[in-house]
Amino acid sequence: MSRVLTDLKGRALSLSGKALGKLLDDPERAQRVAAAVGAVQRGKRRVGQAQGEALNAMGFASAADYQALRKRISSARRKAQALLERLERLS
Fold first, then answer.
1. Is-contact 27 33, C-beta < 8 A?
2. Which is more confidently placed, 19 or 42?
3. By three-state DSSP, how is residue 1 classified?
4. Is-above-0.70 flag for pTM?
5. How far apart (Å, rounded) are the C-alpha atoms in residues 48 and 89?
6. CA angle 54, 58, 61 (to 5 degrees)
7. How far apart are CA 18 and CA 24, in angstroms?
8. What residue spans of the chain are helical by DSSP H?
9. pLDDT tens digit sequence for 49-68
10. Which of 80, 51, 78 is nearest to 66 (CA)?
């Protein structure tokens, strides 16, 4: 069964690659696809921002808040590690 799935995945990847290649062969079409992908990315970013603002307005933490917290914790860990290393050298 695993061999069948592996073969099927390989064929699907090959066919999708060929289809994508044909789709992007035309420079004008490729530019339109790139513009559409860019619009989707911008829309996703706006939805994420609006979601964060709505969560914050209700008193909940957003994904951006958690990301900022992870960065602060990581920074504090690095600083603590550096302090421990300095203390070990002093003793």
1. no
2. 42
3. coil
4. no
5. 46
6. 75
7. 10
8. 2-25, 27-57, 63-90
9. 999 999 999 999 999 999 99
10. 51
Q: Contact, 69 vs 76, CB < 8 A?
A: no
Q: CB-hemisphere CA count at 13 Å for 30? A: 8
Structure tokens at 2: 């695993």
- How far apart (Å, rounded) are the C-alpha atoms in residues 8 and 15? 11
Q: Dihedral through CA 27, CA 32, CA 35, CA 36, nearest 10?
A: -140
Tokens 């061999």 sit at which residue?
3
Distance CA 77, CA 69 (A): 12
Contact 65, 52 (CB under 8 A): yes
Sequence-ordered list of residues with C-beta below 8 angstroms from that of 23, at least 6 positions apart, any chain? 29, 30, 33
Single-letter code of the amino acid located at 16: S
Rounded to 10 degrees, the C-alpha dihedral 24/30/36/40 comes to 60
